[in-house]
Specification:
Layout: H1 9-13, E1 26-30, E2 33-36, H2 37-48, H3 56-87, H4 93-107, H5 111-120, H6 125-145, H7 154-168, E3 172-182, H8 189-206, H9 213-220, E4 231-235, H10 242-250, E5 260-262, E6 265-276, H11 282-311, E7 315-317
Antiparallel strand pairs: 1-2, 1-7, 3-4, 3-6, 5-6
Helix pairs in contact: 2-3, 3-6, 3-11, 4-6, 7-11
Length: 319
Amino acid sequence: MRRSFLFVLPVVLLGLSARAELVDRVAAVVNADIVALSEVEARAAPELAKLKDLEAAKRAEQRQLLLKRSLDLIIGEKLIEAQARELNFEATDTDIDAAVEDVKKQNGIDGAQFEQLLGQEGYTMASYRAFMKKHLTRMKIVNLKVRGKVKIADEDLKAEYAKLVREETQDFEVHARHLLVQLPAKPTDEQVEAARVKADALMQEAKKPGVDFAELAKAKSEGPSASDGGDLGFFRRGTMVAEFERAAFKLENGGVSEPVRTKFGWHVIKVEERRSTPPKPFEELKDAIRERLLRGQLEKYTEQYVDELRQGAAVVVKI
């Protein structure tokens, strides 16, 4: 349930396919480089999938916004890659090896598990390494052109901590359990609906007076936490996947949710307890705050750099 690097792979990686079929509609031309509409749609696919429950007019409007956002990202990447070629910058195999090992270390997995997880997302090791090469090459340019502008003072850290304290005194964490009806990586509509019906039946059973949710989870949940009665312990916002988190934080003590769909399947959630979250000491959070502020400034200055590149490039948007 907890977030990992693989959750962001569809957003970042699905633009890997450099092969654009001739029948593709052209979304944009960046200098002499064509961006196919299929590439833009693939990049936006995870977000586009969330629009299916909207009414038609709203769905069309949101689809266009998502496509534009994804196209802007792709254009920015191509402009930075062009700069890398001009400056003869390129990530080496050593750079890629180190990045892959770092990802495995951060996620506590070995090589076989890593390749298995990549496969579940539709990637081979070769295609992931190709992505990493492009990504690391772009980062070399960003570090060269942008990193020097990023500066974080101690006053910035203290101001951000004060803001965090104000926010956390108004927030809470929840202790939740869940029942899971699993779905395969690429389910059919029939599989999704059958799992939803099964989850709905479990939800109805969980809401019956006197039912022990933990025992029900042990008996019928398909998730790895089933043996613990579906127990997920206490967690704060920003810990679980978004759909699961939104549902959990809406529930009161003892509340049971309607079936909630995530990429893992359909969940029925029960909140055992909500409690306030006292803020951690400044010294304990200082490094994390610095990293967040650095990332935010880096993104801001990178956007400005891309805007400068775009002004000097021949970019024609056709969607």
